[in-house]
Design goal:
Layout (H helix, E strand, L loop, with lengths): L3 H7 L6 H17 L4 H28 L25 H26 L4 H13 L10 H22 L4 H22 L3 H6 L5 H30 L18 H8 L8 H28 L1
């Protein structure tokens, strides 16, 4: 029998804060433009956590089958949980976990579709493709980073906003852009330690397609665009001035950008990988909080 602790490891539980921050951001955007409601917000949170668990577990299952997890050099932020290579659970346990939570996400998505109507259909369809197709299809044809940025970034924020009242406004769309860029970068930087294992396993990601220096420059551009986008969205609309809170965590980019501008052939320092994660979580959260504060004060 696989115990709860092992299932939590297969789900990569420490990384499940990401959907929480995306919900905060999406709800903040919806509140500033109109209203945000507790019920739909909580359902959206459950759905996003469920699909994140599904992606993580299916990734563990696939990477073990393809031998990728047997070759990774694990860090606290990359290389999988190590649960299956250590023999702590059968490979099928990860598959069962992934399919179960994919079903949970699908049920919640269908409920939102019945409530919101056709406007929610793209979120449901693309979400299903990203969850079920990420590891064994999308990450093997060079679009894994974009899929991650959309599924657990931009579309998540805009999806949380649209389930409130069935409306997707300019603020929610604008808030989706930094979320996309940060999740894109979250995956991209974590791919550098896995370069050789991914190559042997048949993956095609930006590190392998562009080389380490080229992929590092893509990381730099996407990272710098986040605070630039937030500030520009305040200066020319549609963000209120309180949204500038979301630009503050970009100081955390100093460590990963220092590595990227230096010798990209060197290992990514662990502090840089950690700063990349905290930057992502803090930016989503503070942008959402800034929008909520502006909504209350309006």
């Amino acid at each position: 029998m696989t115990d709860l602790k092992t299932y939590a490891a297969l789900a990569r539980a420490p990384f499940l804060l990401l959907p929480v921050t995306l919900v905060v951001c999406g709800a903040g955007a919806a509140a500033f433009e109109g209203d945000a409601y507790l019920g739909p917000t909580l359902f959206a949170l459950v759905g996003l956590v469920a699909v994140h668990i599904a992606v993580n577990a299916l990734n563990e299952w696939s990477d073990m089958r393809r031998g990728i997890d047997l070759n990774t050099v694990r860090t606290p932020f990359s290389g999988g949980s190590g649960t299956l290579p250590a023999g702590k659970a059968p490979v099928e346990a990860a598959l069962r976990l992934g399919l179960f939570f994919a079903a949970v996400g699908l049920i919640i998505g269908i409920w939102f579709l019945s409530r919101i109507g056709p406007a929610f259909l793209p979120f449901l369809l693309f979400g299903a493709v990203f969850v079920l197709g990420y590891t064994d299809a999308l990450a093997r044809v060079g679009v894994g980073e974009v899929a991650a940025g959309l599924g657990l970034g931009g579309m998540a924020v805009s999806g949380v906003a649209i389930v409130q009242e069935g409306i997707l406004g300019n603020v929610a769309i604008a808030a989706s852009v930094p979320a996309f860029l940060m999740t894109f970068n979250l995956l991209l930087l974590n791919e550098f330690p896995d370069e050789e294992a991914d190559r042997k396993g048949g993956r095609k990601n930006l590190v392998l397609l562009l080389g380490r220096k080229g992929a590092a420059m893509v990381y730099v551009i996407a990272g710098l665009l986040v605070p630039i986008w937030i500030v520009a969205s305040v200066l020319v609309g549609p963000f209120p001035v309180w949204a500038l809170l979301g630009a503050l965590p970009s100081v955390l980019l100093a460590k990963p950008l220092s590595w990227a501008f230096g010798d990209a052939s060197a290992d990514v320092p662990i502090p840089a990988l950690g700063a990349n994660v905290v930057w992502n979580l803090a930016t989503n959260t503070l942008l959402g909080v800034g929008l909520l504060v502006a909504a209350v004060l309006a």
